[in-house]
Amino acid sequence: MTDVPPPAAQLDLTRLRVLAAVARTGSVTAAARELHYAQPSVSHHLARLETEAGIPLLQRAGRGVRLTEAGRLLADRAGEIIARVEGAQRELDALAGLRAGRARLAAFPSALATIVPEAVTRLRRDHPGIGVSLVEAEPPEAVAALQAGEVDVALVFEHSDVRHTRSVDDLSRFQTTRVLDDTVHLVTAHGGRGPAGGSGRTGSALLRAHEDDAWIAGCERCRADLVARCAAAGFAPRLAFETDDYVAVQALVAAGAGVSLLPGLALRAHRNPDVVTVPLPGAGRSVLALTVGAPTPPAAALVERLVATGRS
User: Fold this and answer.
1) For residues 161, 165, 170 and 172, what is the CA-based torsion angle, rounded to 10 degrees?
2) What is the rounded CA–CA span in Å between residue 244 and residue 164?
């Protein structure tokens, strides 16, 4: 009786993504951070992938790892395989049209509280067969989820008119659609000195009027924006409180704890009646929808409705 060779092991797509991330980032730790996995989970996937491949893919190099020749080969092929699978999914979605499919979106909190619900409502009204899933994520995390294939659209923002650390390092990797331009506002308390001078004053002059006040800062990207604007106005702000919660920011301002900068979307999501807001001349941020290459029909339909909502 002729021996029949055992079937070849099948390579798991998730583990190929992990190997590709290790090759791209240069370490297990960086790959775990990019993919939003725990480091032991990444190590487990790599060990299983080596078992499936039947050949060592990584070797220790000091405190890190490096790919073997087989590992480099498989990492190169992994990129091709993932691209083909994603391409096939896009083709299937196109065949199905907008009668079915799903659109997965990662967006920052103030967008999730304002334009996203209306955009989702419009999408479901026009195409009830499309499923929508949402996840809250600041721009870097949203981009990482997009790169890992966990979402189809990443909604991010960029403070585009001052030089400081960017929310997203390289937009050239993505197809970018502008959703709206969001104005940055100076927020002060009723009964305080307020946005001294009112109309006609420059943004720098408005900020300098509060040089001696305590400031309330938000997330790392918004804090960098605040510090950069104050530096351009000629002073370093005294950061007394730090919170990402725009409701808490306004409560602190209303209580007289300090002043702050908030984008229009945050004020649209929640407006404390005991604060005064004034647009900061020349200050704004761009809200952008990012996709990897041409989006699937459901994702493209979602982006269209985000843009329409942003304009309304």
Assistant:
1) 0
2) 19
